[in-house]
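Hi F.,

I've been meaning to write this up properly since the lab meeting, where we talked about keeping a consistent format for the predictions we share between groups. The idea is simple: the sequence comes first, exactly as it goes in, then the C-alpha cells exactly as they come out, then a line or two of notes. No screenshots and no reformatting. I'm using this chain as the first example so we have something concrete to point to.
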Amino acid sequence: MLGGIGRSKLFEEINAGRIRAVKIGRRTFVAHAELERYVAGLSA
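Output, unedited:
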C-alpha cells in the first residue's frame, strides 16, 4: 500500500496514464519523483 492506495488501484492509475511507469520484463517501476508528483496532485 502506498499513500492509502493499494496495488490494484496503483495499476489502474498507471493504465489510465495518471502515473508514469516503466516496464522491464515482467516488473513495473515507478520513479519516486513520479509518486511525489501524483500525491501532490491529489492534495491540490
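Notes:
The chain has a mean pLDDT of 89.
The longest strand covers residues 22-24.

If this format works for you, I'll send the rest the same way.

G.
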